[in-house]
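B., you asked whether I could sanity-check this one before it goes into the benchmark set. Here's the sequence:
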Amino acid sequence: MGFGILDDKHLKDVPGTALLTDLEVVHGKQVLVHDANLLKRGSGRHAHIILVPQPSDNPNDPLNWPLWKKEACFWSLAFAASLDGALSPMVGPGYVLLSNQFGVSVDTIASSFGSILLGLACFMLFQNVFAVKFGHRIVYLGSVTLMFISCIWCAASPNLSSIRPARVFQGFGMSALQSLVASTIEQIYFVHERGARSVIWSFSIMSGITLGPLLYSYVISNLTWQMGFWFVSIPLGLNVLMIFFLVPETTMKSASLSGSSPLHPSSEKQSLDKDSVSEHERAASIEQVQSRPATYISQLSLWHGTFTDVNILKIFFRPFPFLLSPITYFIFLVHGLQTVWLSLMPICSSTIFTIEYGFNASQIGLTNLGGIVGIVLALLVTGPLTDWGTIWLSKRNKGIYEPEFRIFFISTMLFGVFGYAGWAVGTTHNMPWIGAGSKL
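And here's what the prediction gave me:
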């Protein structure tokens, strides 16, 4: 392997390793890889790209969907992710104002509205189980509906005792949009298309986290804190309709014998012909039924049955062995902490910018502009770069794609670490507000 990637000495076929392009670079020139003649490829400027994974011949395979259908599904989920990101920290700029209104401490306000993170953390363990067992569509629709209902609940809440459970249920709804979308991207896009989509999904969440407090700060300053939740419920209601009509089920049922109807002999003297039906014929019969193009009305169904015969408890505990892998902690550090820090900073900003700098709610919201600029710049650079870079590296690795190629682009996280550390040090030492407000 090139680029410092170690060869596996135990597995012949390493998961994730695949032939991505039929071109390789030898001495600076592109030459054809001859092992890819029978494999399906992309089209247009991606005609030399080997499709990974290889799509089936089933027209209902999400990998075979027309581009407009994939885009409608993805952008509906991206819009939901942006609203998801906005809900958690949006009240942050008004914590001091709300503490005066409710006659309690800022910590009490923060813990009451911050209970959304409790719901998010708890349900994160279960939403994947439901998605594996019952499909992604019903989980997404349930999530955005729960976010919509709990948003109205918050807007109509008369006191903190009502706000706390409302925010917990809001966290329940948020969990799928912060984790399950990555699985959907894998189900409908090929490897050479996933990088940009993953960046856009992350951008949607991050932009919501930064824009939410900014917009809410003006609402709470000029109207009421309840109106902010009423305003958010409008796009959430629209998103419920978008998910229902534009996000079909992306999980495929395999044409396996487990999905076929068992034979029930009426007597012990059943004919030999019925007893000798081959497994191949039964599987072919299932494939023939599945290969019929599904109608749009049938795709609107909320219930598509179960997608696996594995017990729910076994599905729930299946990811836990990964806690023994260092890769899990690497992902937690790279992605998890970035999201946590970005969510916690608006909570801290409310107190810091009020006490240290004398800002009001709308001024505190404006301190998020620096983060928005950084997120947009990151999207414009890393979005196209990840997919293009992966193809470029594959060409120089004899056409072979390695999952480790993505690690090269994760190094940009260091900019975020420097930004958060600089913000913490700066606010501790009373730097001018422009320094703390320009965090990236």
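One thing to flag: The CA atoms of residues 155 and 227 lie 7 Å apart. Otherwise nothing jumped out at me.
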